[in-house]
Amino acid sequence: MSSILRRVLHTAFNRPYSKPTHSCGELNATHAGSNVVLAGCILPERKISNRLSFFPIKDFSGTTQLVVRRDNHDQPVLSSLSRVPVESSVLINGRVSVRPTKDRRPSPTGDVEVHVDSFTVLNPAAPVLPFYPSDDQAIVNDELRARFRYLDLRRTALANNIRQRSHVSRLVRDALHTEGFLEVETPLLLKSSPEGAREFLVPSRLSQSDTPLFYSLPQSPQQPKQLLICSGAIDKYFQFAKCFRDEDGRKDRQPEFTQIDLEMAYVAWGPHPNAHNNPWRIGGHEVRAVIESLMGNIWHNVQGIRLPSSFNVITYAEAMARYGSDKPDTRFALEIQNITSLLPHHHQSSLANLGQVLETLAIRRSENLPFVRADDQYQLTDEPTVTRIVLTSTNLLTWLCNLVSPAVDPEHHISLNNVLKVNVGDTLYVSRRHAAPKGGATPLGRIRTQLAESAQNLGVSDVILIVSWLPHLVPGDYVPPAYPHLFTHHPFTAPMWQDITAMYDGRIDEVRGQHYDLVLNGTEIGGGSVRVHDAAMQEYVFSQVLQLDESEKASFDHLLQALKCGAPPHGGIALGFDRLMSILCNTQSIRDVIAFPKTGAGTDPLFKSPATVTNDVLSQYGIQGIRT
Amino acid sequence: MSSILRRVLHTAFNRPYSKPTHSCGELNATHAGSNVVLAGCILPERKISNRLSFFPIKDFSGTTQLVVRRDNHDQPVLSSLSRVPVESSVLINGRVSVRPTKDRRPSPTGDVEVHVDSFTVLNPAAPVLPFYPSDDQAIVNDELRARFRYLDLRRTALANNIRQRSHVSRLVRDALHTEGFLEVETPLLLKSSPEGAREFLVPSRLSQSDTPLFYSLPQSPQQPKQLLICSGAIDKYFQFAKCFRDEDGRKDRQPEFTQIDLEMAYVAWGPHPNAHNNPWRIGGHEVRAVIESLMGNIWHNVQGIRLPSSFNVITYAEAMARYGSDKPDTRFALEIQNITSLLPHHHQSSLANLGQVLETLAIRRSENLPFVRADDQYQLTDEPTVTRIVLTSTNLLTWLCNLVSPAVDPEHHISLNNVLKVNVGDTLYVSRRHAAPKGGATPLGRIRTQLAESAQNLGVSDVILIVSWLPHLVPGDYVPPAYPHLFTHHPFTAPMWQDITAMYDGRIDEVRGQHYDLVLNGTEIGGGSVRVHDAAMQEYVFSQVLQLDESEKASFDHLLQALKCGAPPHGGIALGFDRLMSILCNTQSIRDVIAFPKTGAGTDPLFKSPATVTNDVLSQYGIQGIRT
């Protein structure tokens, strides 16, 4: 550190310094002539001429241009300010002036500059930093950015995401409080299930017959929130809930994440009585109304967009048939077509006997240009059960023959091509699959998603959709202690009331659940359900539907007991706040909307976690490492 | 379950039920004549006469009286409603009527009653419940209440605390957002220090050379929040932060708790330049202003009380001298008096040579009646270094002689008694202690606190106080990785600027820290400091003041590195939200302001945590139980 810096630094420490009078980002022409005090990071000097230098100064609110002229009076200021390392915190005393018209910039403070009278270095940066966040040109690798996250957070784009996240959380809380919701904190040190899969454990210093005891971190506050509503203390609960999932790293997953979690008492068990044409055929429309209003509020305030007051509702069966996905991206029309009924009768019967259907996804040159280009470029062939056919004058009337036997005659091809509106040059993806869809996507659905991800210039705008009427539960759906899917299929979802008899009759495949997913642009950002509130029904679901054994059921004792205390009917939803923010901020990854994220592998290069622990510490918890 | 219940239940399941039109707690005379639909828990029937029964119905908002008359028309309703188990969830269709004047009650809905036309049982309670929350007379043991917390939460008082907690959190967030603070979430899976004391560990499935790796749960977001401010992305940060501390159970501690955590960039390092008589002699007055405004806002809105706009500030030295405590309860005047200077000169010199002082706490019959009664009753003698003397006509002029030698003559006793304003019948607690106080309380301070806790009818109102100017750090203050005290003494606190030279000269005992505690009615509810922002100074504190070794220092590498990037000067505070709510709700324990608390031993009787985990699960984490 140079002696001049040591001196100004000493001055800064040993004297109270003046308070900044303005933020760097708020100065404009109305401040012309004012004396101001600014605090911020000093950015690289731009020498405009031998007589003039610019130094941008930046704080949380923006950047202002500082000006120092090389005349006799300014000489000492300029020579010392030039020596302050970039990114140092400085305090500037100066005077605002309006720039000549030709020098104005379109940035927020672009009309003004601040002539520096004097300055104090509050904290000098090291002469060389790992990288320079103000340098947009430098390519900095992800590992370095993660390790020096506090420097990376100085980048305006990333800082804006973190600030936007706070704004949206405020908006959501305000909206929910206004609708009578109360925020209640639920425990993070919760019960560890004996199976323990996917939960993070927390060793305790308590033990039972010399066996160490563990808490676990919740994957969601599902049980506490249901117990809270069962208590009747609260009729509308919400929480920005910290959740944890110990699973192998994935692109867009974090071991810890945040949910906007809601639950409401006295939700209906059936459709609104006056809404005969309403596609929402289940209960819980109170929850739907809250979510539609909340999302509308966010989009209006953050994006300046008016969403429709009522979101489209599609059933799981329809979503799988038309889009091949339980979280369809309906921003573009590209739809899957089931061509089984267009085949000759004997083909129809043999498919029916196998319980199968034949589907196509057509990429038409006449209408799907972005998809045509993506298809030409990528020629997707990695789905083993999907055949990709480019129609030519040679195969136009024979393309089905390689897929089904006996061969299909040209007349059938002609009518099929007419129905599909395809011609020479178009691409057909053809797939044979089980008629009853399962899981999250069909093979053609995956092709459709890949094409959309590769297609450029789709020119789409946000679409929010509700997927509803999902299959209820079948044995094996319950992967203890958690949910095979982020939000769906927990064992507390109520069956549709029309299907209760089927459920009690053991026709479990026919039972649909009172479940809803919120899908935004093809990403599932939330899910919820109307819950079972009848203890006998919940016990039946555990024993007869999911076929849990006694010890598995025992971990739900408190819930069954709470239902038996006259719990009100209830339902709720949870929204993934990280994903929602990632979509709102248009980032590649949820890591860009989290202040201190972990890597895909679950490590934290900044805090260097996880880390080793000594045996002495472990022994307090009655545990030790397994020697290999 | 009776068949009639099964039938109504079936009805409730199989049909959408009407939405409640009103909350039970909102009905009043303006609703007279309206048809209403109410949903809630049914409470025990009160048979007023052979012809009339009352059933209170309760929801989150309050209780309304339902009326059923035993006439021909109502007979079926009454006989079935009488058979619904208490605490069942019911849906009532009825008509509001105003009570005759003589029957009105002072409760919020006491002017009206609802005549029941029909009802639906939404969920019947079991015929016998573990206890009945509506029964104020029954004494229910704590263990049962904890195990069936969802029933206990039906008690109005407890439910109100949980609701009040939500209101206060909203108030705090609104106030802080309005002042430009942004809420940022920081990681909960953080770095485990090698020492690991007092931290909860979280095993990960990652390992390093076959050694298992662990995260730890944070005791506070101290390091992440400082790094955030160092980044410059945010100038005013706050968070309702989940914190964890693994320590042996105590009356008013929970293994997980919530802090209102703040940090601000560019806080001053010295007193306000225009405030010569201001007792706030350190930096960070920006933080002080935020807290005073915030607390004033809470007290005004929640308690209807105007707090002084500026809280009293007392130094640690003065608090220890006058009240014998670093968190003095100044709601009452009872003060400790140092009588060293009133002793004969040779006693003064010998005390000075020993570095000691002689102090008294006088309980005067003439003025401290509640304390006199407490003293008479408890005759506190459990402090070994304190002598309790009841003044009598015999010992009035000799009482000091048993405490110091050589004997003190009667003339000195007369003048001393005059200064102390004591006479026959008064009690004196006398203590000899080291002149430089250490830790949280002196022996007389503990006596004073015990007397105050025992005294009845003190008739005091809330007093908030700031204790400031604490001793900085000395070797051994740093108990890795945490803080010997809830909030104080972490290694990032800046020295007072007047004492920087003393610190660098190695006169560490003379250095005072830029630290402040917020004390409410003798309870520490918050603490904070101005932080060191200069990397060289922080390194000096680690190495020379705290004498950490290289490996201990290594765990702070990221902080030192962040300071070297030109971090702005910063400071902050953290408030204990559970304690604050406990004081606001006037509860005996913080457990009464937490929805699902743990016992003093750290167990959760509701969720039955912590619990055992199978060896299979543990082995995924590379750990096993230690066999004994």
TrEMBL record, chains A, B:
Domain Aminoacyl-transfer RNA synthetases class-II family profile, residue spans: 162-597
GO cellular component: mitochondrion
Any one Pfam family match given in the protein's UniProt record, by short name: tRNA-synt_2
Gene Ontology MF: a single term: ATP binding
Keywords: Aminoacyl-tRNA synthetase, ATP-binding, Ligase, Nucleotide-binding, Protein biosynthesis
HAMAP family named in the record: Asp_tRNA_synth_type1 (MF_00044)
Family affiliation: Belongs to the class-II aminoacyl-tRNA synthetase family. Type 1 subfamily.
Protein name in UniProt: tRNA synthetases class II-domain-containing protein
